[in-house]
Design a protein that fits this description.
Elements lengths: L2 E4 L16 H14 L1 E6 L12 H14 L5 E4 L8 H10 L6 E5 L5 H10 L3 E6 L2 H9 L8 E5 L4 H8 L8 E4 L5 H11 L2 E4 L16 H14 L2
Parallel strand pairs: 1-2, 1-8, 2-3, 3-4, 4-5, 5-6, 6-7, 7-8
Helix pairs in contact: 1-2, 1-8, 3-4, 6-7
Length: 233
């Protein structure tokens, strides 16, 4: 079992002062979470105004900064429709990347997800298939990508039962990584530990530690998740 760190998502500094936004900040934060025990990072590059973007220039800068700060750390970028609702524009952005990430997260519930996945795979970028409902797992199972994805990202707004319902429908042999959102994040991580699967945590998902205290930064969240996983061994 291992921990992927999600460094920023769509969070703002108004939500948490420690949210990394610039390429330099993401590079420094990636180095810190690696030291805390993360095996990979998932990030949302930002433009100069702080908005999420898949623009090649911004994404290339972020990937280069993280690779310079922490060589060998796998890097994942988001392809969320929240960044750009046009799946064709998102696919075009992927084709424009020159500093390619190791993987991208692709939401199976989103219109045009298969085209995004196909574009990434053709570019030699691995795909995390993000599943937020049982129907998404069924969609993945029926798709030609069922056994081409790097892993299934089981992501839920609810709790452990919701995660288990999705996980039970993931195609056999596909690695899983679970994460929650907000107050129930730690419940989902604890259930993943019991199931023996990898997890994700970071300021994108949750702002507090398992005991309810505000987390100082991403590294503290990762360290707490690592401790929880070790405690379940």
């Amino acid at each position: 079992m291992a921990v992927e760190a999600c460094l920023n998502g769509g969070r703002t500094r108004a939500e948490h002062a420690g949210v990394p936004l610039t390429a330099a900040e993401l590079g420094a934060d990636a180095h810190a979470v690696r030291a805390a025990g993360a095996f990979a990072v998932h990030v949302h590059p930002r433009d100069r105004s702080g908005r999420q973007t898949m623009d090649p220039k911004a994404c290339d800068a972020v990937v280069a900064a993280i690779r310079a700060a922490t060589p060998g750390l796998p890097i994942g970028l988001s392809t969320s429709a929240a960044i750009d609702p046009d799946p064709f524009a998102r696919a075009a952005a992927i084709r424009g990347w020159r500093q390619q990430p190791d993987f991208v997260a692709v939401g199976v519930s989103e219109v045009g997800w298969a085209g995004i996945a196909r574009t990434a795979l053709h570019a030699g970028i691995a795909v995390e298939a993000a599943l937020s409902a049982p129907a998404d797992a069924e969609e993945l199972r029926r798709s030609p990508f069922a056994h081409q994805v790097l892993r299934a990202l089981v992501e839920v707004e609810g709790g452990a039962d919701d995660a288990r319902a999705i996980a039970g429908l993931v195609p056999d042999g596909v690695p899983q990584l679970w994460h929650g959102s907000g107050a129930r994040t730690w419940e989902v991580i604890a259930a993943a530990a019991e199931a023996g699967v990898d997890v994700r945590v970071g300021l994108e998902d949750v702002l507090v530690l398992p005991d309810g205290r505000a987390a100082a930064d991403n590294a503290e969240l990762v360290a707490a998740a690592v401790a929880l996983l070790r405690g379940s061994d």
